C-alpha cells in the first residue's frame, strides 16, 4: 500500500514504527469510507494552497497560510486526552489528539506438580492478580508559525506545560474515554522522550505511563 504526503509527514514525526500502523489504519479508513463514514486524519495538515513566494530569501508571510491552528478543540477530537494535578482541578487538554496504546495482563502463580493421566496437563494455577495498565501516549506539539525564530515557531507554551506534568512527583489525574471505561483515572509517569522531529514548529513526544489506584492498606477491625 502506498503512502500519501500526509502519511509520510506523520511517519516522519512519529518514527518508522508508525508506518505499519498507518497502513493498517488506511485499510480501516478505506473500508469505513466505503460505508459513508468520514475518514479521521491524524495530524492537522493544511490543504489550502499557500501564498509563500518561491524566490530564495523571500520572507515568510506569517499572516498567510504558513500558520496553523494552536490546537484542535476538544469537541472536534475523537478521544481527547487531558491531565490535571488534582481530581477536580483545572484540566490541561492535549492540543492534538495523540495515539494511545494500552496493555495489561495477569500475574499468575504456577506450580509444576507431578500428575498422572493424559488429561492432567500443564501447571497448577494457584492464584492470580491483575497487573498494572501500561499506557503509551505518542503525539506531537505544533507551533502556530511553521518557520522562524525558536521563540516564535517552536510550541514553547505547550512544551513547558506538558513538562510540568511529566516532572510531577505524584500521581496525575487523567481523563480519556477508553481509559475511563477501564477504570483508569490516575496514572504515574515512568518515562518520557522528545525525539528529534522534522519541522521547526513541531515536537514529537512519547510518554510511558502506569495506572495508579487508591488503596486502603490499613483495615480497621471491630472487636
TrEMBL record:
Q: In which organism is this protein found?
A: Flavobacterium sp. CFS9
Where's the DUF6046 domain? 94-221
Q: What is this protein called?
A: DUF6046 domain-containing protein
A Pfam family annotated for this UniProt entry: DUF6046
Amino acid at each position: 500500500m502506498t503512502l500519501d504526503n500526509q502519511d509520510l509527514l506523520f511517519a516522519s514525526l512519529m518514527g518508522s514504527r508508525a508506518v505499519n500502523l498507518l497502513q493498517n489504519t488506511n485499510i480501516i479508513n478505506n473500508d469505513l469510507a466505503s460505508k459513508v463514514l468520514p475518514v479521521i486524519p491524524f495530524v492537522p495538515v493544511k490543504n489550502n494552497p499557500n501564498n509563500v513566494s518561491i524566490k530564495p530569501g523571500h520572507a515568510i508571510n506569517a499572516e498567510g497560510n504558513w500558520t496553523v491552528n494552536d490546537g484542535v478543540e476538544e469537541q472536534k477530537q475523537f478521544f481527547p486526552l487531558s491531565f490535571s494535578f488534582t481530581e477536580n482541578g483545572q484540566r490541561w487538554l492535549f492540543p492534538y489528539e495523540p495515539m494511545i496504546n494500552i496493555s495489561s495482563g495477569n500475574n499468575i502463580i504456577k506450580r509444576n506438580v507431578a500428575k498422572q493421566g493424559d488429561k492432567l496437563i500443564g501447571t497448577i494455577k494457584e492464584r492470580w492478580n491483575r497487573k498494572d495498565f501500561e499506557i503509551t501516549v505518542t503525539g506531537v506539539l505544533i507551533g502556530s508559525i511553521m518557520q522562524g525564530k525558536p521563540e516564535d515557531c517552536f510550541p514553547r507554551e505547550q512544551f513547558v506545560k506538558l513538562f510540568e506534568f511529566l516532572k510531577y512527583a505524584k500521581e496525575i489525574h487523567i481523563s480519556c474515554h477508553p481509559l475511563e471505561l477501564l477504570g483508569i483515572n490516575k496514572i504515574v509517569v515512568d518515562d518520557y522522550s522528545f525525539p528529534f522531529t522534522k519541522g521547526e514548529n513541531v515536537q514529537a513526544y512519547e510518554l510511558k505511563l502506569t495506572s495508579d489506584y487508591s488503596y486502603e492498606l490499613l483495615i480497621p477491625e471491630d472487636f
